[in-house]
Amino acid sequence: MFNLVLFGPPGSGKGTQSENIVSIYKLQHISTGDLLRDEVSRHTALGTEAKKYMDQGMLVPDEVVIGMISGKIDDMPDARGFVFDGFPRTRPQAEALDKLLEFKNTKIDLVLALEVPEPELISRLVNRGITSGRSDDTEEVITKRIKEYHSKTEPVARYYDAHGKLERVIGDHTIAETFKVISKHINKYLLPVT
Ligand code: B4P
Q1: Looking at ligand 1, which residue's alpha carbon is closest to its atom 40?
Q2: Mean of pLDDT values over 88-106
């Protein structure tokens, strides 16, 4: 099994690159953002609770997100591996993920951190907001999301760095160029499925 965490600030391209990775390496994609938006659109109790945080650019409480991930991993016992996109976003989430995977006799192999300058992040997300209609892609909320990232999510990079798993990837080249660099890192562990 090969498990990858795709890490980075909002708008750094985690969702975009995950799509390419799962399709070329035949891995399962777990995006907490997508899972939460799905709960919101189905008006579940979890979604209604999560929306309050998402609309303000704040992180959803750890216990909500960790419970969701655990169920999702259990749903796919035959997976070749997982791409965790937007998770973990806090140190308690990172520790919970390590425990969950250890219980399943596996682990995080690699963490790729996408690095993009802040003005480029804001411009990408504002542009996405014009077409996606995502209520959190407005300049005011984007600024709050980036602040949350610096205070709560950046420590996760240090956690994985201390475990020797972190590789930094420049994320403000084109989507294809960034994917080439990502592939070079993944190929050290797993080859593409043709
Ligand atoms: P997410 O859905 O994870 O949103 P994101 O960080 O904005 O997405 P991403 O970085 O994947 O950007 P994308 O590739 O789409 O989270 C949304 C909210 O959910 C959070 O604010 C939080 O409230 C909640 N949440 C999610 N996970 C949580 C967790 N674990 N704990 C607590 N709360 C959680 O790229 C953005 C845009 O850039 C796209 O339009 C794309 O086309 C463009 N782009 C990408 N790469 C490009 C490139 N190389 N060049 C030019 N444009 C590019």
Answers
A1: 128
A2: 96
- Please give the structure tokens belonging to residue 105: 């006799």
Rounded to the nearest angstrom, the distance between the alpha carbon of 31 and the centre of ligand 1 is 9
Average of per-residue pLDDT values in the chain: 96
Mean pLDDT of the 160-181 span: 98
128 lines ligand 1 (CB under 6 A): yes
**Across the chain, how many H-helices and E-strands are there?**
9, 5
CA 82 to chain centre: 11
Confidence of residue 194 (pLDDT cuts 50, 70, 90): confident
- Where are the extended beta strands (E) located within the chain? 2-7, 28-31, 81-85, 110-115, 166-170
* 139-164 exposure pattern, b = at least 16 Cβ within 10 A, e = fewer: eebbeebbebbeebbeebbebbeeee
Surface-to-core class of residue 171, CB atoms within 10 Å of its CB (0-12 exposed, 13-18 middle, 19+ buried):
buried
What is the H or E stretch that residue 147 is in? helix 139-148
CB 142 within 8 A of CB 125: yes
